[in-house]
Amino acid sequence: MTTTHDPLEDRIRHTLRTVAETADLAPDSRPSPARRRRRWPFAVAVLSIGAPVTLAAAAVVRQGPEYVDAIPPSTILVDDDIDGDRYLVVESRRTDRCGEPTEGVELLRTSRNLIGSEWDMVLVEYGPYRGADCGTDPSAWRDDPARYSDGGLEVGDSFVWHWAVHPDVARVRLSVDGEVVDEVRPLAVDGAGFAFWEVPDGVALHAWTTELVIDGQVVPGIDDDAAPGSGER
Amino acid sequence: MEQIEAATLEEVYREHRTALLRLAFLVGASRELAEDVVQTAFAEAQARWDQVDRPLPYLKRAVVNRVKDDQRRRFRRRDRSVGHEPGVVLPPEVDETWPLIAGLPWWQRAVVVLHYYEDLPLAEVAVLLGRPASTVRSDHRRALDRLRRELP
User: Fold this and answer.
1) Cβ <8 Å between A75 and B21
2) Is A23 helix (H, G, I), strand (E, B) or coil?
3) Which residues of A193-213 are buried (b: 16+ CB within 10 A; e: fewer)?
4) Average pLDDT across chain A, whole number
5) What predicted TM-score, i.e. pTM, was given to this entire model?
6) Whole-angstrom Cα distance, residue A210 to residue A231?
7) How many angstroms separate the CA atoms of B1 and A87, rounded?
8) Contacts of A36 in chain B (CB under 8 A)
9) With helix as H, strand as E and coil as C, how does A174-227 read?
10) Residue ranges of B 9-38 with Cβ closer than 8 A to chain A
């Protein structure tokens, strides 16, 4: 046990030890020998839920934030495929180079992200970048709900297009030649909205117009090319 | 061979489960969540057990990261309803220091718990949390400053 001459540090140690040893965690939850044996099938069940993602893997080769590891199933927001090419939208769990957690979501193809390989994904964040690899500043767009950023990832024979929008945006409306072809509902993550759309056959890239439905009103979106809210990483 | 590996895993489970539950609780898990994260950490370790050289540090890292993920999810999914979770009863000898530690920003709380409860040097805390060492040192300093300011 480490001791110091700083009364505060000693007090912290004492408090943590006391809480850990006296909180009623273990007595209520400690399984009897019979219960303990039953827990293993449960553990396997948890694993089987995670397996479709973790087993997009060949083997654990390298570990670290830059390499693919298991994706917790609870962070997966979208799990779909185009022509059998599976893609996921997951909550971002990274730390940027400024040491802060990234806010937003990641779009990735499982076939390009085998465990142990380097991540190959699109990080989608809302707001203009603060600086090199230092995340975005969502507050800069808070007063202008029409602003958005977008981009795409090639999946199968098509693209999955993504938008990062203001939290008040209820739907992203997509029109081609003046006709509405689809509306997608953003997912609420980190105080912003993130919408995804599989570009249909026959629709050329950038052939659509993006409008935003906010408080029941259709608002022309302002694409913020100068301050992208997403970028290939 | 499989039976030997399973027994080893179960041995670690029996020996360290309570300690991992306590760690999960100290870094912010409710009792229910602590149970879940420890179970899940073992379940995932089971799949790669033969590749895990040092099971306990591996499991600690898994537990802390899972609690962190849960904390972030609660904050992030605004529409997520948080159900009532049974509280943990603490004895009277736990003074006002604990609520202040529990009220620290999550990264600072994790650094404090790992450094003072797990007795890990700050450099190892940084590795376990996947954060730059300088950031962890800063979190540590800020946590102590805040506790020093707020404690009577």
Assistant:
1) no
2) coil
3) bbbbbbbeeebeeeebebbbb
4) 74
5) 0.47
6) 19
7) 37
8) 14
9) EEECCEEEEEECCEEECCEEEEEEECCCCCCCCCEEEEEEECCEEEECEECCCC
10) 10, 14, 17-18, 21-23, 25-26, 31, 34-35
CB contact under 8 A, B93 and A18: yes
| Helix and strand totals (H; E) in chain A | 3, 14
Q: For B66-90, how does the pLDDT look when each residue is reduced to its tens digit (9 = 90+)?
A: 888 776 655 444 333 333 344 556 6
d(CA A133, CA A85): 29
Residue for token digits 């450094």?
B115
- Are A225 and A157 within 8 A, CB to CB? no
CA-CA distances (angstroms) from residue A153 to A34, A163, A221, B80, B111? 50, 12, 21, 28, 37
Residue-wise pLDDT for B12-57, tens only, equals 888 899 999 999 999 987 777 888 889 888 888 887 888 888 888 8
Q: What is the pLDDT of residues A37-82, one digit of tens each?
A: 222 222 222 222 333 333 332 223 344 566 677 777 788 898 888 8
Q: How far apart are CA B109 and CA A19, in angstroms?
A: 14
Interface contact flag, A23 B88, Cβ < 8 Å: yes
Residue (of A26, A22, A12, A99) closest to B119 by Cα position: A12
- Is the confidence metric ipTM above 0.90 for this complex? no
Q: How far is CA B82 from CA B25, B77, B78, B85, B106, in A?
A: 17, 10, 10, 8, 18
Nearest CA-CA distance, residue B136 and chain A, Å = 9
**Chain A closest CA to B4's CA: distance in Å?**
15
Please indicate if any CB of chain A lies within 8 Å of the CB of B97. Answer: yes
The CA distance from B95 to B11, in Å, is 35
Please report how many Cα atoms fall inside a 13 Å half-sphere around the Cα of residue A217, on the Cβ side: 7
Name the percent of chain A lying above pLDDT 90.
22
